[in-house]
Amino acid sequence: MSLTAIGHAPSDDQQVLDAAAGWLADGNPVVLAVVVSTWGSAPRGVGSYMAVREDGLFAGSVSGGCIEAAVVEAAQDLCRPIQVMDFAIDDDTARRAGLPCGGNVVVALIRPDSVLLARLAQRTAQRQPAALVIDLASGQQTLVDPVGNHGHLALSPEVMADIGQRLASGQSGCPSEGLFARIHEPATVLVVVGAVHVTQSLVAMAELVGFKVVVVDPRRSFATPERFPGATLISRQPEEALPELILDSRTAIVTLAHVAALDDATLIRGLDSDAFYVGALGSRRTHAKRLQRLAGLGVGAEALARIHAPVGLDIGAANPAEIAVSVLAQIIAARRGKPSQRTS
Predict the structure, then answer these.
(1) Position 7 confidence tier, pLDDT thresholds 50, 70, 90
(2) Which of 98, 165, 223, 266 could form a disulfide with 195 if both were Cys (CB 3.0 to 4.6 A apart)?
(3) Section 17-31 average pLDDT
(4) Are residues 239 and 263 in contact, defined by beta-carbon separation less than 8 angstroms?
(5) Residue 46 in contact with residue 166, Cβ under 8 Å?
(6) Tell me, what's the pLDDT at 94?
(7) Looking at domain 189-335, which CATH architecture does it have?
(8) What was the pLDDT predicted at 14?
(9) Rounded to two decimals, what is the model's pTM?
């Protein structure tokens, strides 16, 4: 099975782009707003999107709510290929928007290219990074991926090299004066083994934050569409299912089965992959026994140390939904490079 076939709830960014593409397909003029720089308090980071339809309907956001109205108004009046808006947010306005202090937000308004949006969606589906590059003077756009430049905006070798580095790091920004590169990374994939009660809550929450979710459980009565609407379901043993998935550095794997055979098979495969997170449900006593079994099967100490177990941050979780919150928080912390191991 290829991950390109995996169903998932789109990320916030993809939802905005999907809305823009849909409106364009229906013949509605659309303006795409993107944050190109920030200073001070900014609830939405560089690269945040907001799509505005001609009638004022919009998707996404570029701030905490204090400049969206101005962006909608400007978008409805936009009569040129691009407009760059520089918003200085004073402390009083910032506090009303829930920010500790003021700052500065620069937003570019462009007429999105439907062909480039379609190509970008294709790259995302293929789990390839891509950059939407915007000329901040002319409004011209192009799409750059590891293969090359796929538009009509000419870019120098130096700029292409900078964008290549940004594709690797995931950092949007300005590769040169007057250009902005919005980096789109492949979605994070969450593979969960064990279609149990905690998994139901975890899948729903993970989809909300834009993860692609795969649920693996050989018990067909467990892994059903009724219990996991929207997730990709695989009713096979993990040792059969996992080798067919792409377990790369944007993949998290967690076993919630609490069945030794399923847990061990999952961990062996996960620890042999580039997954950024590998976790397992169970008490410290259960995990100690698990470590003994895995060591006996030849898994080294360095690999075993990668396992997050007992799984989840220690928040005093007392029910399946709270356990799911703790697990997802730990996965997000690991993805963002924050401390994610339990300390107690």
Answers:
(1) very low
(2) 223
(3) 96
(4) no
(5) no
(6) 56
(7) 3-Layer(aba) Sandwich (3.40)
(8) 85
(9) 0.77
Asked if residues 142 and 153 have their Cβ atoms less than 8 Å apart, the reply is yes
CB 304 within 8 A of CB 290: no
| CA dihedral sign, ordered 300, 305, 306, 310 | positive
Longest distance between any two alpha carbons in the chain, whole Å: 69
What is the Cα–Cα distance from 244 to 5, expressed in whole angstroms?
Answer: 12
pLDDT surpasses 60 at 250: yes
**Cα Rg for the chain, rounded, in angstroms?**
22
Ranges of CATH 3.40.50.720 domains, the chain: 189-335
What amino acid occupies position 325? Answer: V
pLDDT of 97: 52
Question: Helices 260-271 & 284-296, crossing angle to 10 degrees?
Answer: 60
Average pLDDT score, the chain: 91
Three-class HEC string of 284-339: HHHHHHHHHHHHHCCCCHHHHCCEECCCCCCCCCCCHHHHHHHHHHHHHHHHCCCC
What does each C-alpha distance from 305 to 164, 272, 279, 302, 309 come to in angstroms? Answer: 33, 13, 11, 5, 10
Q: Which two tokens stand for residue 172?
A: 């949007």
Structure tokens at 97: 């928007």
Q: Is the pLDDT of residue 1 over 50?
A: no
